[in-house]
Amino acid sequence: MIYMDHSATAPVRKEVFEVMEPYFTKSFGNASTFYSLGREAKAGMEEARENVAKLIGANNDEIIFTSGGTESDNIAIQGIAYKLNNAGKGNHIITSAIEHPAVMETCSALEKKGFEVTYLPVYEEGIVKVEDLKSAIKEETILITIMHANNEIGTIQPIAEIGKIAKENNIKFHSDAVQSVGKIPVDVNELNVDLLSISSHKIYGPKGVGALYIRKRTRLEPILYGGGQEKDLSPGTENVAGIVGLGEACRLAKEELDENIPYITNLRNKLIDGILNSVEKSYINGNIEKRLPGNINFRFTGIEGESLVLMLDAKGIDGSTGSACSSKKLTASHVLKAIGLEDVDSHGSLRLTIGPENTEEEVDTVIKEIPPIVEKLRSMSSIWEK
Amino acid sequence: MIYMDHSATAPVRKEVFEVMEPYFTKSFGNASTFYSLGREAKAGMEEARENVAKLIGANNDEIIFTSGGTESDNIAIQGIAYKLNNAGKGNHIITSAIEHPAVMETCSALEKKGFEVTYLPVYEEGIVKVEDLKSAIKEETILITIMHANNEIGTIQPIAEIGKIAKENNIKFHSDAVQSVGKIPVDVNELNVDLLSISSHKIYGPKGVGALYIRKRTRLEPILYGGGQEKDLSPGTENVAGIVGLGEACRLAKEELDENIPYITNLRNKLIDGILNSVEKSYINGNIEKRLPGNINFRFTGIEGESLVLMLDAKGIDGSTGSACSSKKLTASHVLKAIGLEDVDSHGSLRLTIGPENTEEEVDTVIKEIPPIVEKLRSMSSIWEK
Amino acid sequence: MYSEKVMDHFTNPRNVGEIENPDGEGTVGNPTCGDMMTIYIKVKDDKIDDIKFKTFGCGAAIATSSMITELAKGKTVDEAYAISRDDVADSLDGLPKVKMHCSNLAADALQKAIEDYRSKNN
Ligand SMILES: Cc1ncc(COP(=O)(O)O)c(C=O)c1O
Ligand SMILES: Cc1ncc(COP(=O)(O)O)c(C=O)c1O
Ligand code: FES
Ligand code: FES
């Protein structure tokens, strides 16, 4: 199998799994209990917290563990929105048009509850303009939430600049960094963020665990209530094994970042060139420079992405598509719409996301397999004409 | 080590761990993707859903997976409260005085948001009276949430009767069954519940995963927003390994329930008799009959629980206490208060909770170790006088 | 997600292509999910003598197109006209629920082609 869907999820690395293992059956204590077994669990958790903090330049006590990127986004956005709105500070939120549903749906739920939300455009490049942000800010703005890197087209947003503006205007700033952490350098102080979301399974940790960076003295209204764990914000018996896995994944990511970036970038560029050169009417969606090292989002005129992904699957290649046909609600990806693609063009998208375990031979195979599949699908397509 | 803190958490069973393992590193697909790897993950999840459903007599599509008992409780209680309140059905909630913080804190947060909450008393026995419930019901009552079995004193509430009354009055009924599922028979139809919370780590599954039973046609307002997973109620990339582990834990629990109940009850009774007979001024908190098979909650006059637990830990015995001294906020257990204990008496509580892997020899050891420890602590106690 | 039959028709679609100077031609498209299919027919002695399709769409869209060409071939025009969406889905051992309406347009396309044939021959 050639796995090129790393933005969807990644396997748990062997090294990560080995570190997690003892916490299932041996050091299985409840981290909130104070006898030895509980203390072992607690120690594992706190080491993990340190590893997460180090990866993003934060302090340990600025990290809380959550059940994943989605929960992190919800805790951050709802938490700031309710806290500041209750304090009479305003009801306006600024976000982008290409956020992950965990942010987008949270914002739209808040809209229904009386908040006002501005969705910044991203243009053909898939990148927000700082000027647009500036003009969107008003007296009532309490929160800016803009992702670091997009999960579909991989474009990287000008987070540091946005953070600076947020700070100048005394507006809280959250960034969903689920796709960027561990892939490119992320430093909460350089980026000027107050809150930042992380998900473990995107960086070779286990699914169902994540983290939220909360800058010191940033107060949130809780949305979940319980036994007080994780600063009362993500209560419940701690998923110790998962947390330890996330910690180890962060430690490894930090260690290997400098090596991975050029390696992955190189594979990606080779794959892009190989396909664009051999398939006519093939394009890249979104800015090609300001993009995650491993992200490719192709667009092939005249074919539909779900059939393309299925045919690649049959050849043992895993990728994904933003085609309406592959979505639960049969609507085209809001990201592809936001960069201006018509429905018929967004149908033809193929996302391949490369990880450090992909090889040059795999890239060669993919470059060989895609063109005949595209040709086959085009030959049966009712809208393809040479 | 003699582990007798099963109500706090349990180890992942070997059989459960083995079933989970492939989902970390091999079948690691995102269950929402439609190529082969994603379908494998999805299939594992759906088999787990069936095993959870079977254990509690539900249909598969009435089960959603969550990140634990705490999230299940929050989704259920906030979900019903907001849904029905928004529909103008009322704002009154009935609960008990001995709920787990996941329920209690949720109810008290709702109180701050304009809901009215009645906390039913439980008397010395630690059991709510159906008559009290009946008189608490009023026009505005939209939700009853009462736990099946208590986590500290193990008392079992008259859920089936309460459910019947809820039904007659057309009031939604949620029960936190985190402590009872897998320990005593739980059937959602016999119990007449509309919603029921489950946590994996209490039944030898992994931490950080749980389930919520939602009776068909019961509508909830979501509290977390994202990619639509788990009926839009618990969104986020599914914790497939964890879910598969919970499923296997449920399957085993169902298979072994009939065997475990008499075995555990027998050990428990032996331990109770052994201690009550050898330690003067020792008592059992809460009703002795209507109680989980594995739960013992002792009370030793004149000593403090945290020191007791630490001394037991030194002997390799793990238990817990409701003593104020062992809590984060230095307040006595609300459960012990609710059964009428004065602060000084609640200090002397020791909870031992027995699981199927405990042995008769372990019980004998505990019966031997406790009396000298109690004696030692009493001999240094300023409030103990023979 | 898809039945084996769907996958078979998707990976080895039958009767792909166009017919030059067809007796009837029908194109349908669904605005929501955006699939487009065209069915071409040749009629001889009131029977579907030849039938071909071209489809832009998902696995289900391609499989249903392929399946209807097999179902229709050799049938009388009236019989072919009576083939329903459900017939197509059933012959494929079912389709995923979300796809039932969106990708199951092949019956409509064939009916349109037959209507085109009838209007030309009246
Ligand atoms: C950008 C982004 N944000 C949030 C999430 C949600 O994270 P999780 O799946 O851990 O809930 C994802 C991935 O699914 C993502 O790509
Ligand atoms: C009765 C009860 N409800 C809810 C919970 C919370 O479950 P979890 O720890 O999985 O969040 C627990 C245990 O901690 C419990 O004992
Ligand atoms: S063509 Fe869009 S769902 Fe089938
Ligand atoms: S005696 Fe020390 S905390 Fe209570």
Summarize the structure in words.
The complex is a heterotrimer, with two copies of chain A (386 residues) and one copy of chain C (122 residues). Chain A has 386 residues and is of the alpha/beta class. In chain A, 41% of the residues lie in helices and 13% in strands. Chain A contains twelve helices and twelve strands. In chain A, strand 5, helix 7 and strand 6 form a beta-alpha-beta unit. Chain A is globular, with a radius of gyration of 21 Å. Chain A starts with a strand and ends in a 6-residue tail after the last helix. A three-stranded antiparallel sheet of chain C has the order 1-2-3. In chain C, helix 1 packs across helix 2. Chain C starts with a helix and ends with a helix. At the A-B interface, helix 1, helix 3, helix 4, helix 5 and helix 8 of A face helix 1, helix 3, helix 4, helix 5 and helix 8 of B. Chain C: It comes from Methanobrevibacter arboriphilus JCM 13429 = DSM 1125. Chain C: InterPro entries: NIF_FeS_clus_asmbl_NifU-like, NIF_FeS_clus_asmbl_NifU_N. Chain C: This is FeS cluster assembly scaffold protein IscU. Chain C: One of its GO terms (molecular function) is iron-sulfur cluster binding.
Protein traits:
heterotrimer; A: seven-stranded mixed β-sheet; three-stranded antiparallel β-sheet; 41% helix; 13% strand; C: 122 residues; alpha+beta; Sufe protein. Chain: A; 3 strands; binds pyridoxal-5'-phosphate; binds FE2/S2 (inorganic) cluster; NIF_FeS_clus_asmbl_NifU-like (chain C); iron ion binding (chain C); FeS cluster assembly scaffold protein IscU (chain C)
Break the fold down into its secondary structure elements and pairings.
The complex is a heterotrimer, with two copies of chain A (386 residues) and one copy of chain C (122 residues).
Chain A: E1 2-3, H1 14-20, H2 22-25, H3 36-55, E2 63-66, H4 69-86, E3 92-96, H5 101-112, E4 116-120, H6 130-136, E5 141-145, H7 159-168, E6 172-176, E7 195-199, E8 210-214, H8 240-278, E9 282-284, E10 295-300, H9 305-314, E11 317-318, H10 334-338, H11 343-346, E12 349-353, H12 360-380
Parallel strand pairs in A: 1-11, 3-4, 3-5, 5-6, 6-7
Antiparallel strand pairs in A: 2-8, 7-8, 9-10, 10-12
Chain C: H1 4-11, E1 24-29, E2 36-44, E3 47-56, H2 59-72, H3 77-81, H4 85-91, H5 99-102, H6 106-120
Antiparallel strand pairs in C: 1-2, 2-3
